[in-house]
Amino acid sequence: MNFRCVVLLALLAAAACAYETVYEATRVKFKYSSPAAEAKAIASGKFIPENCAPAGVKSWNDTLYVTVPRWKKGVPSTLNKVGWSEALGEYILVPFPSAAFQSQVKYVQSMEIDTRGRMWVLDTGRTNFFDGEDASVPGTPGLYIINLYTEHVAAYLPFPDHIADPKTSFINDLVVDDKLDVAYISDASGDGAIIVVNMMLKNITRVTHPTMKFNDGLKYTLDGVDMSKYSIPIDGITMDATQKLVYYNALRGNHLYSVPTQELLDGHATTVTDHGEKPPSDGLAFSSNGNLYFGSLVDNSIYEWNPQTPLSTAREIAKSFDQLSWPDTFGFDGHGNLLVLSNRLHLFVDGKMDFTGEANFRVVKIPVHGISYQYGPQPPNLPADVFAPKVEIATTVSAPAPATDSFYDVAAAAAAA
């Protein structure tokens, strides 16, 4: 092999790994008023560091937001901003929008931020189910919407039992069409479903399809963990930049599917497309550049796919055994970078995570020359400022409604209580 070829291969390898770490931790650290306050929380069991693992990530106006699901007991704050402690010399998680909110919300795994500066926050409701079924605490699933300009809760929607059962709920991830004020939510309980929340029309529907089930025949191991025991159906969900198709995959599955958003709005999934095989993956993300991003759980890598081509042509854009172990969720920083949160979730759930060595949890950013799908198809040159709201933000998403509608303003409800 001549020198020119060696240099070319080296440049290509470097390009495939061009990412930067923006958060990392061996153990999750939360903001406390003092070391004594943290020690008291640990002693009381309110904070059990080994039970805390970040999962969801999003960015807005150069602020990074991270969720810590209450999969196990001892999670003091489930929705957070990422900060830096000069005293500790490490990243800390700051409760968002407040410490008080953490006792109101039960369990946040995923959130989405729309173009109008609103964070749509999924509350799974049920907690502690990774501690065992006997330890699982039922809770009402719901959807909060937080105004990021004021950091106040603007609206709340509890889900009725026939949409998401408080005893079995596992509402997992979501995408948002903020032109219609519609959220499409993956429900990873049972055989799986997509829950459609239409805030404008004030209704919720649950849509099922056989492709949302897990693949019982898919068997593999990760770092000695038998993944066949985690029979999770639909998990990852995203929407293309035209907002005409929702894409999804099962966690225990190796196919990627899509369904027209109009069918979901109409309460059914009839025209489902199987795009073919891919590695088992968790989260999905579409960019304004028209590409879909997914991770590979089996080889710790990130792939980019142009839907105008076969899925088999997806290209690997980043790979690292240590830094991309279990690429869980995605986001965009508004500056052309894809955000990836990795958390070695298989080791965490199986009780095999090492909290004494290198970082277990990371958020990295990868240049992809795109922003969130919500901004619609974009030209190669990014907007100067994607954070400027397109319309005046309202203090609530929907006006207070009768109890039968299940829509109400949190602040109004609290004042009336």
The DSSP helix count reads 6
Q: Classify the helix fraction into a percent range.
A: 10-25%
Choose one word for the global shape: globular
| Derived structural class | mainly beta
Strand share of the residues? Answer: 25-35%
The termini sit apart by 76 Å
Sheet having the most strands: 4 strands, antiparallel
- Extract low-pLDDT stretches: 1-15, 387-417
Rg on CA atoms, Å: 21 Å
Total count of strands: 26
Sheet with the most strands: spatial strand order: 1-26-25-24
What does the average pLDDT come to? 86
How does this structure look, described?
This protein is 11% helix and 34% strand. It is built from six helices and 26 strands. The strands form seven sheets. A four-stranded antiparallel beta sheet has the order 1-26-25-24, with no helix packed on it. Strands 2-3-4-5 form a four-stranded antiparallel beta sheet, with no helix packed on it. Strands 6-7-8-9 form a four-stranded antiparallel beta sheet, with no helix packed on it. The model is unreliable at 1-15 and 387-417 (pLDDT under 50).
